[in-house]
From TrEMBL:
Lineage: Eukaryota, Fungi, Dikarya, Ascomycota, Pezizomycotina
Region annotation Disordered: where it falls in the sequence: 62-92, 267-291, 455-474, 565-590
Natural source organism: Hortaea werneckii (Black yeast)
UniProt keyword list: Coiled coil, Golgi apparatus, Protein transport, Transport
Pfam family, one: Vps54
Domain Vacuolar protein sorting-associated protein 54 C-terminal: 310-440
Principal subcellular localization: Golgi
Gene Ontology BP, a term: protein transport
The name this protein goes by in its record: Vacuolar protein sorting-associated protein 54 C-terminal domain-containing protein
Biased composition (Pro residues): 77-89
Top-level taxon in the UniProt lineage: Eukaryota
Amino acid sequence: MVSTSTRGGAKLTQQEKSSILARNLRAMDAHDAEGLLMSVYTSVGEALRRVSTQTKVLLDVTSSMQPPTTNATSPIASPPKSPGLPPKSPEMFSLDAQLANGSGKANNPPRIAVQNTQQDVQEELSQALDMSSLLGQAVDTAQNQITRVLKVRNEQSIRLPQERFLRYFTLNRLFADECEAVSGRGSQALRGVINAQISGFVQVMGTSEAEKVAGILDGDDWNAKDFTEADEKVLQKVLGSMSRDPPEWTEGRKAIWEDVGYSPERASESAEVGAGDKAADTNGTSTPNTNGAVATGTKIASKPAYIDDNRFILVRSAIQLLPTLDHFLSLTATLPSMTSSISSALLEVLKTFNSRSTQLILGAGATRSAGLKNITTKHLALASQALSFVIALVPYMRECARRHLPSSGQTSILAEFDKTKRVYQDHQSGIHDKLVDIMTGTSQSHIKSLHTATYDKEGDDQEEEDGEVDSPSPFIETLTKQTLTFHRVLSRHLSEFDVGLIMRRIAEQYREQWVTAFKAIEVKNQSAKRRGTKRLVKDAETFRAKLEKLEGFREVGEEVAEVVRGKVGQERGKKNEGGEGKEGDEKGKG
């Protein structure tokens, strides 16, 4: 602990002494501050218990005291007087006796006067040794001084790591409970300071975690990572909190009398957490080829996470969101009265994750923050999976919060969870729209090639003689290859449901584009018409055959092929009609 010397303190004013003491208190690290409070609370608690015991002993003694003695020649002796208390003089009974019975009978006071005198003595002593008054003053004095100390260290306390703060909270709560048990009345001032610091801690933690999540997102390379056994344990705690608090949240912490350990390197546990995150960054990017599940078939697929029967291929930022969720939800078990504030802070972190990922992927910010060359289908698919993962977790977090919320304050917080889920779903819909737009734009560029295709180009004699076209047009080959690759990437990273949903939307776009485009094609060069129609048929059949296994594409392929076959049939019909007309003319001439 760094301390300011107070030598020569006799020459300092009281204000200067207080300032030095406050500076020394703020300079204490978490370990020393906890030790100081524990020592003070132990000493004060022991002193209060002794005061309570000694007061009870004195009350027992006074309750067994005998009344003051009297003699025949003197009036009743006055009871002892306590300083500061109004006299309860028995001489009034002597005066009453003299007035009622005459002066000669004053030396024989009635028995009732003696009894009343004894009661007055006991009442006066009881008032002087009133236990609740004495203990109340002692407790108030102790708590006023402790409250001043806690306020001085307020900024340091609300920035403690979670484990340290929970120990700090438990220590203060135990002291407040002991004071209340000894004095019999509540300690509102101390509890008020503690509750204010809990609110401050939750707010600081929320801000810190939001910044941490944003930083992890900025550094994410948007490659899939393995979901490890340690990650699975954290996930199971979050899922299990829907119905009960995991034992790790309530039973896994050390008792207040057990030291959590201290060394200069661990003076700030939050710094240790930051170092762990940095190490995770290194581990996450050092072996991208083995951990990243990308489009090529030569790389190993990442180990997925599972919620119920749903599979999730996750990036590092989504996996590292789990400990943050676990920290917030565990606080609802240890600080149930603050569940509303904790839930609000948790929701702010989720909003940060959503908004920042929007900027990085849909806004292409990752090309600057993570050095990506461009945002690919894989990046969009992995972003969608991260959103799906959070969407799947929201109902579990909502139920955990509901269990700890008071019935009067549930509606607004639970509605915020539902609203956050809808925001994530809207973001995911935007990503799916982007995926559809990518393939729609790709398809549209190939339609331009269709309109400029060389269907009017004349082939060689051998090709005419064979009557077959060896290969489809290059744009059809490219389109089908790109579509199949797109589907393969989605299948590796998205759920079967999402893949089917996206591919059906793309199929509808292909239907509108290619049916219209093939209908508009005409082969004008009569000498090349035979070859041109054959190539049209080949292109349509290739389109159908290669894409028909994709969901929603069988009907599209059949419709495109039917349009081309109909067009070829019409051309043949026209040719036959032209041939028959020519033959009839020749017969007429003959």
